[in-house]
Fold each of these.
Amino acid sequence: MSKTYHDRILRVLDYIHENPAGDLSLDRLADVAAMSRFHWHRVFHGMTGETCAQAVRRVRLHRAACLLVQTDASVAFVAKTCGYDSVQAFSRGFRAGYGMSPSAFRVRGDLRSPLNSPEKGERPMFPVETKTTPAVTLAALPHKGPYLEVGQVFEKLQHICTAQDLWPHVCGMTGVYYDDPNAVAAKDLRSHAGVVMTDPALIPADLERVDLSEGRIAVMHYKGPYAGLKAAYDYLYGVWLPESGEETRDSPPTEMYLNSPMDTAPDDLLTDVCVPIR
């Protein structure tokens, strides 16, 4: 893949993530890419597998889902922040993407468990198992800022892997989250977006090496939109861990992504949240 075109894709994806309420028309994105609008869309679709409109819609709806679940902002504010001209247009788009209205999604709190549906006032329950894992090495990009924006870094990582033909040497996608968002300001949260490498010697110079040690972990199996992971963490740390009698190790939690929002409905996304234990 041409590095010039690769850089253009990354520049446009960054622009979409950073300007969800801005002008994300095909002409504007062609300007960001510094390409003719007659050819830009074909290049973007050919290199990403998405149309520009699909990418914009996906980013806007993910941002909206996170704001609905993780903040008290009004639906009108969320709609405006995510680039919709009206609440009605936002509601139609959100229902098409998530199968329910924004208000219903917020009321649900995105606490749906793959096994149990909590009664009102109860905490959700998520299946957790303990196991021992080997050491793994990630090729990763760092991120500092709100965790809900780390998707931007994962997209950049995916395009680097494609450009440098790393996928034959990758066996999974993992996020490493170093700080507690309940204790650290969103702008200061640290994380890595990474892929698990079968041969660490092949990590390119523009990616960082992150080593995860072998040992026991508690694995919580979460099914649903990424916006609901906060509730899953609350259950894992607030309920399961105290009742289990396990002790944590001095290593950060990680998330293993078992499928992709690029081709999977939000309710069918599968994430393993892994907490190192002694």
Note: The longest strand covers residues 136-144.
Amino acid sequence: MQGPAHLAVEGDAEKSRRLAKNLVGNALKYTSRGGVHVTWGEEKETWWLMVKDTGPGMLSGPGTPLVTGLQEATASAKESDDRAAARQGEASQVLPTPRDSISAEALSPHQPGEGIGLSIVKRLCELLDASIEIASSAETGTTFRVVFPLAIGSRQSSAVLA
């Protein structure tokens, strides 16, 4: 784990923890060698959480609507962020897409998942006004990056995440 000791944000602490728990739980479940790295931080008007594993990549569901949708959303976010960053003379912070992104050729010894955990993560992102990015490869594993606004809304309770 790596990130600031204290990160003050406004939002729903319970939903944020559940989202993190689902991502970390999936990473641990599918990583038999290597490890899981969880990082968080703040940039501009957002904060982010990243969960990276060295598992087999998301090979259990290539082409499924959820995986395809997450990949398309990440590509769209990267394209938009690349343009904005170029105008400001900065580098994009969106996850790069690996060259061998989610390949059906390399099969995992793990049982395929049902996608329920990722469906929950996707819905929590919608409820928290967060965006989710994914990069996955058989060689490097899977990385999820969730980007949240610093202030989600006045209906939410304040929380300090550490």
Note: Residues 7-105+112-150 form a domain with the Heat Shock Protein 90 fold (CATH 3.30.565.10).
Amino acid sequence: MATKKIYLYPIWIRLWHVINAMTFLLLVATGICLHYASADNSLIPFQISVGIHNICAIVLSVNYGVFVIGNVVTGNGRYYRKWRKNLWPKLWKQFLFYAVGIFKGEPHPFPITKKQKFNPLQKISYVFAMYLGMPLLIISGIGLMFPERISNTIFKISGLLFYDVLHIIVGFVLSLFLLIHLYTCTLGDKPGTLFKSMINGYHEEHE
């Protein structure tokens, strides 16, 4: 059985992906510790959690800037910009494949090619996560780091409370996205095939 290889992940994408994953996981871990911290019971000491969380937040923000700029100046941005016609029927078709077809051994309705790196569900979820979720997470995080520089009231609600609630909600949604992303990454020809792509840059599938 022949193996088809397509080079889809240049070194800058792989480095960005690793840094993004590591810092986000640390942010989730320290964020949970901060949320449930108490004087008597804390998995990681409060001040240490704050320090790690803030450093990782800065690294994540800078790394996100690299992602946005990289997509602008390289060809990688086209995978996020180019939308297909009849999007909703294609989203439903992809959903049915994940829900039923994949367990029946049916062929992928939208195979990966050099021009099409993402299937419709991946594309819409990545766009919302990276171009809506991440900016909201970063902006709300900045609001929490410098509350004295932010207006004290937003719609008659404490600015600090507003950013805190927004930060928690967006962080929770992106954490769910991460779990789903990790699961779908096991759906290659073999459970480790798609993870291997982040090492050598090649998408592999058997023909």
Note: The longest helix spans residues 46-73.
